[in-house]
Fold this protein.
Amino acid sequence: MSTKNNKLRFIDEEKTKELQKDWKGYGKSQVLFGIVVFVIFVLSALYYYIL
């Protein structure tokens, strides 16, 4: 069992902590990007239905 655990555990905990910090910032930018895309989609849909 111990050999399998060592093989499966190839990600360092220190690196994952750094990645979690990056993912938090990435999450904020992802949400803002999603809002912008959604606003563009809504505006284009309204423009399409008005015309």
Q: What stands out?
A: The mean pLDDT is 73. Residues 4 and 47 are 58 Å apart (CA to CA). The helical segments are 2-8, 13-50. Residues 25-51 form one domain.
